[in-house]
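ENTRY TYPE: paired fold submission
RECORD: A
CONTENT: sequence, then structure tokens
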Amino acid sequence: MSILRQLYQGNICPQEYTAPDNDSYHEAMSELIEICDEFEATLTEHQKVLFEAFELASAMVTDLEQEDYFCKGFVLGAQIMREIEEGV
């Protein structure tokens, strides 16, 4: 089945593949979680609410950035294919 048909039928969902699956990433994520937990333990209740709002806003920005990176990568791939087909 063609990649376009798979994408249309929902068999491919690019946002499912956003986190790397390698040791370096897992180690960095574990360290981040540990530091975040330690940091949150020092916050007052009001600061925890603010920090949670910060985390949600940061996640939204990251999602928008990843969507943009995906789109730009797709366009770049299409441009590369066009050049290959043109023999440039």
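RECORD: B
CONTENT: sequence, then structure tokens
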Amino acid sequence: MTRVRPARPRNGCTRTTGRTSIVIDGSDGEILGADGDVRYALRRGPGEVRYFGPGEVPLTHALRNTGERDIRIVVVELLT
């Protein structure tokens, strides 16, 4: 499980496969590219499930929590 506290970015990660993201506790956030620039803003709520195919999120990225509550997400990578 990934936990990102408010006003803090999660350490970056590199993913090369598709994945499913299951939100346990949601909030507002931003996806950052490898260079630290904001790629896009997001708002996720508890129980939300999303599939991300290869290339949908920058290969190397980080999540910064811009909300007031922790973000907790379970990520299931789909290996081939």
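NOTES ON RECORD B: Strands lie at 2-4, 13-14, 18-25, 28-33, 38-43, 49-52, 60-65, 71-78. The chain has a mean pLDDT of 88.
STATUS: closed
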